[in-house]
Amino acid sequence: MRLGLAGAGRIGAMHAEILRGLDEVDELVIGDTNPQRAREVAAKLGVTQIDDIDSLLTAGLDGLVIAAATDAHPMLILRAVEAGIPVFCEKPVAGSVGETVRVLSRVAECGVPVHVGFQRRFDPGYAAARAAVISGELGWVHTLRATTLDPAPPPAAYIPTSGGLFRDCSVHDFDIVRWVSGQEVAEVYAVGTNRGEDFIRAAGDVDTLGAVLTMADNTIALVSATRYNAAGYDVRLEIMGSRRSIAVGLDERMPLRSAEAGVGWPSGPAYATFIERFQPAYVAELRAFVDSVRGAPTQACTVADALEAGYVAEACELSRREHRPVPLAEVRQ
Prior knowledge:
By secondary structure, this protein is of the alpha/beta class. It contains eleven helices and 13 strands. A seven-stranded mixed β-sheet has the order 12-11-7-10-9-8-13. A six-stranded parallel β-sheet has the order 3-2-1-4-5-6, with helices on both faces.
């Protein structure tokens, strides 16, 4: 199998290393708007580098992995599917809901599969939680609590182009809440605050947020996130049912510590980054994409799924700004 990779930054370089290690991938071709960066990654892995995206898209690819800058995602997706090339694209699909809708429409017309990079779907804990909900072993679910706590903010230059904490970070929680619960979000109420770096406030963003999501079946989902959790990278999901309650992320490397005397758990070193926490999931996600290129079914996030998570993020941002509940119907296009 001959795969292309568009983008050789931090995520692109990680994907390149994973793809190079998959037995099904016979050849990997890397392109980037910064040819030198692509050359360095290609040389390290002993794969092919192409200087421009046009040449990459016409290189006889069986599939394309997109890890380029967000503003390039729509163009790359559409050019690939119009050429009949299956796509794996890191989130987001596009920089706005409107553009995501346009991409979804064209992808549907072309009938070419597009997988969006929400890697939590490929984490064993989240998959087990979804199975527990579907099987009914928890009873009926009344509450979900989803948390994403980053150790430190990204560079100042990243914040103005990130889309904001709801769209950049909590969108992962919105997707996984939908996927695990099997329910759509009906209404949101969200808040956000700033107590850290001024550059986040200056960009109109927040460094800490909370949101209450009311699901279609009246399950309540509570979502929280922050850029400031120096204890480590902390991602968890709790699912409370009428019979049983379970949680994802309660392992030896969870950064949270007990205030109770004599409790030594968890005792392991905390996760430092999302890449460290979800490395196996990233591998499983790309392996699933490779398998899907060969015709196998997959549990990947589709463009339609990504749009739904995007709608929740849009509604939360509107709720935060206007200090009111926002029904999802208000932001749908």
